[in-house]
Write a structure and sequence with these properties.
There is one protein chain. With about 250 residues, this protein is an alpha+beta fold. It has one domain (about 20-245). The protein is built from ten helices and six strands; from the N terminus they run βαββααβββααααααα. α2 crosses α4 (about 135-145), α5 packs antiparallel against α6 and α5 (about 150-160) packs across α10 (about 230-245). It is globular, with a radius of gyration of 18 Å.
Length: about 250
């Protein structure tokens, strides 16, 4: 459900944009592996974290980096705004955070992902725009928390590249690391004061709320929720890593 294609490779986007909105359009199959499209004028953060959010309300700067419907949602839910602010503070201090929005017709696909850009000096969070504001918020929250597993993800990439880990083990260990972020997100989401209508319409809220406490149970739960696509995506990632020539190879 929250398939996250992580990579330390260079970004397909302008490295040092000086404008408020990133203007990226066209197919992005190289990143997502399908035909999803970025919207022209996608929102992009290009500010230090200290200017990102206020603890009690959304700052004017935040209104430039989140979608209008998410801004409205956060203004109506101060406690959620604080949780999101704290998550960014913990996960993203010391580096820039760029947020990119995209559209997808496939409602069963991942709602968000993250990627380490520019030698990990930038955290790129990619989030589907055409989803409920609750789901959009949870997607960004989860990816911020999940980004804290950078060292473990890089170690798994190195192990895959050297053949020290098998295809199935790689996928399982990626999911194990993501499970840490899932548990953190669940704890925070359970504290959200949402209306019955908001929780009923949010697929992500239900996913996190019902997440099992044990990893082995979570594996089955996540596999069922994604219809096996999470496992498949990470196995394909493993194949791509193995197929990439090692640095210095002829």
């Amino acid at each position: 459900m929250f398939r996250c294609k992580k990579s330390a490779s260079s970004s397909p986007f302008p490295p040092n944009p000086s404008y408020k909105y990133a203007r990226v359009a066209g197919p992005i199959s190289d990143f997502f592996g399908d035909g999803r499209q970025f919207r022209n004028g996608s929102f992009m953060a290009n500010v230090p974290f200290g200017l990102l959010l206020c603890l009690t309300c959304m700052s004017s700067m935040a209104q430039n980096i989140f979608s209008p419907k998410l801004n409205q949602f956060l203004l109506a839910h101060p406690a959620v705004s604080i949780s999101l602010s704290n998550a960014f503070s913990q996960a993203c201090a010391g580096r820039r955070v760029d947020i990119y929005y995209y559209y997808s017709r496939d409602q069963s696909g991942p709602k968000g992902s993250h990627r380490y850009l520019e030698d990990s000096s930038v955290l790129g969070i990619f989030v589907r725009e055409n989803q409920e504001p609750v789901d959009e918020c949870i997607s960004i929250l989860f990816e911020a928390l999940n980004s804290k597993g950078e060292n473990r993800f890089k170690k798994l990439f190195d192990d895959a590249r050297s053949g020290a880990v098998s295809r199935s083990e790689f996928a399982k260990e990626i999911l194990r690391q993501e499970f840490q972020a899932v548990k953190e997100a669940k704890t925070l989401i359970e504290q959200f004061k949402l209306s019955d209508q908001e929780t009923t319409r949010s697929q992500s809220y239900r996913f996190f709320k019902d997440t099992p406490a044990k990893f082995e149970d979570y594996l089955n739960y996540a596999n069922k929720a994604s219809q096996g696509q999470d496992q498949k995506a990470y196995e394909q990632m493993y194949d791509a890593i193995r197929a990439t020539p090692k640095s210095g190879a002829q």
